[in-house]
């Protein structure tokens, strides 16, 4: 009788090239390596220095997203990069892609966009794959039942040269999401609640799996939002078993097998579930039915409360370190213990990022903004050129522009504020991105993370608002 | 890489917990295409005022911090991004070890690749270090222990292969390249 295996076990075991021993990590094969301009230059440089070639160009896919401008090309055809360094970095990826033979969808390419948006769009991400990228939100691809995680630049070089990584097997954590979310509560609210429950370090050392009826009910975009923020609780990977929704999403996409090959692939993908009775090192449960729209108040993603809630009192923290952290967060954010977060004035709203910049996210924001005007600076940044085209085909861009929001070109933009889209010191921003660390969106900037609906509500009200009450 | 056996140094103590990679090296410095030179931008937004002058009350700007190679930090150090620029900045600023009660996974792996030792010790030993900033201590990779100011020893876990590579100056990419046959066999079979 074979031992029941988790989804993670099945994928891991199928990719072991040399098994783990007491003295050595496993050599793990990587099916898909996604590349962008920020974490690759030094890796390609290492290959050049050592006279190495790219082992599998067919398993490597690159885009430009972090440093790229979201303003349109100038009349002379040049791009308005924020500085010479950003332009040089992007140029370096173009040179490296040419030299090593990497498929690059750069600026001007009709499928360019945020790396974790275009991988799934192109059908490059598939169930059962191992997927890596020099970016911690690579966890996003776990939504397809792939083992997907972020790596550093040294490991980027390892994968470029050998298509493999040295890895020790992590522990497994299952997040059981019971019940169903109520109307007006979505995937972003769910993952913020999960991260708040597990804590920023609670998932360290684990690969997570999300299970339960509320997860099954999510669209692929919603699942990507969930998996994306796994790293915010310290879990490098966050898997969701594939099902009919996954297969339907994938059917017909450019890099997905077609015809009989597709049918065979789907048949094998159906095995990518955690077997009944399989063992996880840790399990946590959360009741989706009890959730409300969530928003962060502090300086890490776990410092989140329902939008109707009050900013907690640091004095109530479990220990001195917790109290100090709470006090530092309140000081940085300029908020008061016990204050309601509803009605907190806000100066900027950012709708975008690999967490929430897909078509359904834009539709969610547009539903709130339709027929209304924004009261503050609102940036809407689609996740890719394909998302932008689809949104325009539905007239979402007109809704955003008529509301007074800025409709931008695709890119990471204000999530990481590397490209010139940034907050000014002291500004409050309701953002659909994934991190509210100090200075993340601009030195001195104050981020409140939320769903597209909650962000759009803040834009039209001018302060933190409950999207269900508009 | 130079073989790493142990490091003996006075400590710099950063008491904050959950020090994330955006604090260690803000994103605007990630536009570099080099690995070196990030030391001056380490903890930039905590270290410098808006006008660029150093904040005198930040630990790294104090005279005692000069020459220190060991950073003692609060719980969950290095959480956040996969940017290897974080250990690059720490190394460029002269650090060779970071000690905490937990260290985030991706940061830990990146640190090991750069000769920056991520050291996780028990709460009591950590408390002793937090209470004695500037004390001279030793981090012994060979014995896997931290020698505390009191003279006590606190053992720390370290992935055995990373330890072997650090102690012997072995290059992980070289090791992987040597697996070429096994990799090719896997590719043929799948």
Q: What does this protein look like?
A:
The complex is a heterodimer of chains A (470) and B (190). Helix content of chain A is 31%, strand content 16%. Chain A contains 15 helices and 19 strands. In chain A, the strands form five sheets. Chain A has a five-stranded parallel β-sheet with strand order 5-4-3-6-7, sandwiched between helices. Chain A is globular. Chain B has 190 residues and is α/β, with parallel strands linked by helices. Chain B has one domain: Aconitase, domain 4. Chain B contains eight helices and seven strands, in the order E-H-H-E-H-E-H-E-H-E-E-E-H-H-H. Chain B has helices at residues 21-24, 44-47, 85-92, 105-112, 123-131, 160-168, 172-177, 180-189; strands at 6-14, 70-73, 97-100, 117-120, 136-140, 145-147, 153-155. Chain B has a seven-stranded mixed β-sheet. Chain B is globular. Classes of the chains: A alpha/beta (470), B alpha/beta (190). At the A-B interface, helix 2, helix 3, helix 5, strand 8 and helix 11 of A face helix 4, helix 6, helix 7 and helix 8 of B.
SSE-based structural type of chain A = alpha/beta
Q: What fold name stands as the CATH topology of the largest domain in chain A?
A: Aconitase, domain 3
Greatest contact between two chains:
A-B, 70 and 52 residues
Helix content of chain A: 25-40%
Strand order of the largest sheet of chain A: 5-4-3-6-7
User: Strand percentage of chain A, roughly?
Assistant: 15-25%
Described by the principal axes of the CA atoms, the overall outline of chain B is globular
Largest sheet of chain A: 5 strands, parallel
Radius of gyration of chain A using CA atoms only:
21 Å
Would you identify the regions of chain A where 5 or more consecutive residues have pLDDT less than 50?
none
Q: Work out the oligomeric state of the chains in this entry.
A: heterodimer
CATH structural fold name of chain B: Aconitase, domain 4
**Total helical segments of chain A:** 15
State the domain count of chain B.
1
CATH C-level of chain B: Alpha Beta
């Amino acid at each position: 009788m074979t031992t029941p295996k988790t989804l993670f076990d099945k994928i891991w075991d199928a990719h072991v090239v040399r098994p783990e021993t007491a003295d050595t990590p496993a050599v793990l094969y990587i099916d898909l390596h996604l590349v962008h301009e920020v974490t690759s230059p030094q890796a390609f440089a290492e290959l050049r220095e050592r006279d190495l070639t790219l082992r599998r160009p067919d398993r490597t896919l690159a885009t430009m997203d972090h440093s790229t401008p979201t303003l349109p090309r100038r009349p002379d055809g040049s791009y308005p990069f924020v500085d010479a360094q950003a332009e040089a970095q992007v140029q370096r990826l173009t040179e490296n892609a040419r030299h090593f033979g990497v498929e690059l969808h750069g600026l001007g390419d009709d499928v360019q966009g945020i790396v974790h948006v275009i991988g799934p769009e192109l059908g490059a991400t598939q169930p059962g794959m191992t997927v890596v990228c020099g970016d911690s939100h690579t966890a996003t691809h776990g939504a397809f039942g792939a083992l997907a995680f972020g790596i550093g630049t040294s490991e980027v070089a390892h994968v470029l040269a050998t298509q493999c990584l040295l890895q020790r097997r992590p522990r497994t954590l299952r997040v059981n999401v019971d019940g169903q979310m109520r109307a007006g509560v979505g995937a972003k609210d769910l993952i913020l609640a999960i991260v708040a429950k597990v804590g920023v370090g609670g998932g360290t050392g684990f690969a997570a799996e999300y299970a339960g009826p509320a997860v099954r009910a999510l669209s692929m975009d919603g699942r990507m939002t969930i998996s994306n923020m796994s790293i915010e609780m310290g879990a490098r990977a966050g898997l969701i078993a594939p099902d009919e929704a996954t297969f339907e999403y994938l059917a017909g996409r450019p890099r997905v097998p077609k015809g009989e090959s597709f049918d065979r692939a789907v048949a094998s993908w159906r095995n990518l579930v955690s077997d009944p009775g399989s063992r996880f090192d840790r399990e946590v449960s959360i009741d989706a039915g009890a959730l409300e729209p969530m928003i962060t108040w502090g300086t890490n993603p776990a410092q989140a409360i329902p939008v109707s809630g009050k900013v907690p009192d640091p004095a109530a923290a479990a220990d001195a370190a917790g109290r100090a952290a709470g006090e530092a967060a309140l000081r940085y954010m300029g908020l008061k213990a016990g204050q309601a977060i509803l009605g907190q004035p806000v100066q900027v709203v950012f709708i975008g990022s690999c967490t929430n910049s897909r078509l359904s996210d834009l539709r969610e924001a547009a539903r709130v903004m339709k027929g209304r005007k924004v009261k503050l600076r609102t940036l809407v940044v689609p996740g890719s050129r394909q998302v932008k085209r689809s949104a325009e085909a539905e007239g979402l861009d007109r809704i955003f522009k008529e509301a007074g929001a800025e409709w931008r070109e695709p890119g990471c933009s204000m999530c990481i504020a590397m490209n010139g889209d940034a907050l000014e010191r002291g500004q409050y921003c309701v953002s659909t991105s994934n991190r509210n660390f100090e200075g993340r969106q601009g030195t001195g900037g104050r981020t409140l993370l939320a769903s597209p609906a909650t962000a759009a509500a803040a834009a039209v009200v001018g302060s933190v608002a409950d999207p269900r009450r508009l | 890489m130079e073989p790493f056996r142990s490091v003996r140094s006075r400590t710099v103590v950063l008491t904050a917990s959950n020090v994330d990679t955006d604090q260690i090296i803000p994103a605007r410095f990630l536009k570099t295409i080099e690995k070196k030179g990030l030391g001056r931008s380490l903890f930039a937004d905590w270290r410098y005022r808006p006008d660029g002058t150093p904040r005198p009350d930040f630990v790294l700007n104090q005279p005692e911090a000069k020459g220190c190679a060991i950073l003692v930090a609060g719980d969950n150090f290095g959480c956040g991004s996969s940017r290897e620029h974080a250990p690059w900045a720490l190394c460029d600023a002269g650090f060779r070890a970071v000690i905490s009660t937990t260290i985030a996974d991706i940061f830990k792996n990146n640190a090991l690749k750069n000769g920056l030792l991520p050291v996780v010790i028990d709460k009591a030993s950590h408390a002793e270090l937090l209470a004695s900033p500037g004390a001279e201590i030793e981090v012994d990779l060979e014995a896997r222990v931290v020698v505390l100011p009191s003279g006590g020893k606190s053992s720390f876990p370290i992935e055995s292969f990373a330890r072997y590579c650090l102690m012997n100056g072995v290059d992980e990419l070289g090791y992987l390249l040597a697996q070429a046959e096994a990799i090719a066999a896997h590719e043929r079979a799948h």
